[in-house]
Amino acid sequence: MLMGIAWALGGSPGGGAGGSGGGVLGSLMLPIAIFVIFYFLLIRPQQKNQKKHKELLSNLKKGDQVITSGGIYGTIAKLRGDAVMLQVADQVKIRVARSAIASSFGSQTPPDDEDDKD
Questions:
Q1: Is residue 17 part of a domain?
Q2: Residue 97: predicted pLDDT
Q3: Which is nearest to 98 in space by CA: 50, 66, 63?
Q4: 17, 34, 86, 103: which could join 74 in a potential S-S bond, CB 3.0 to 4.6 Å?
Q5: CATH code assigned at 74
Q6: What's the predicted TM-score (pTM) here?
Q7: Structural domain of residue 68, as residue ranges?
Q8: Do 54 and 64 reside in the same domain of the chain?
Q9: Is 86 helix (H, G, I), strand (E, B) or coil?
Q10: 7 or 76, greater pLDDT
């Protein structure tokens, strides 16, 4: 009877540690699997996006049309270190941080203001 209870509780029938050698490996597999899933679903895509954004910022040049992280559209008028001078309208220029540039969508000629036809 005592042997049946020990077997049901997960102990080995001989009282020793004879059959529990795979317990450590089995208990490490779940955290390793979770880390691998997180790496491929979260960490790796974020690293790719950061690398792409860093490349975008380093390749900026005068005349590029950009969008800031605040949603301002403009054309680059000057580049100075960590600052960018954007022309957002005729005779209107603003200075923003280079890191505030979210994306670039073209160069040289600004788009026509088709929204002003209302």
A1: no
A2: 95
A3: 66
A4: 86
A5: 2.30.30
A6: 0.62
A7: 60-110
A8: no
A9: strand
A10: 76
Q: How far apart are CA 25 and CA 90, in angstroms?
A: 68
Location of structure tokens 């788009």: 111
The separation between the first and the last C-alpha atoms of the chain, rounded to the nearest angstrom, is 90
Tell whether 103 is covered by a domain. yes
Nearest Cα neighbor of 102 from 52, 45, 46, 53 is 53
- Output Rg (C-alpha) for the chain, integer angstroms: 30
Task: Write down the mean pLDDT value for the chain.
Answer: 82
**Based on the domain organization, do 55 and 72 belong to the same domain?**
no
Q: Quote the tokens at residue 93.
A: 């220029």
pLDDT score recorded for residue 107: 72
Split into its structural domains, the chain has a count of 2
Task: Give the pLDDT score at 118.
Answer: 41
**Are residue 68 and residue 48 in the same domain, yes or no?**
no
Predicted pLDDT at 10 = 59
Question: Would you say 65 and 31 are in contact if contact means Cβ atoms under 8 Å apart?
Answer: no
Q: How far apart are CA 53 and CA 14, in angstroms?
A: 62
| Residue 101 CB burial class (10 angstroms; 0-12, 13-18, ≥19) | buried
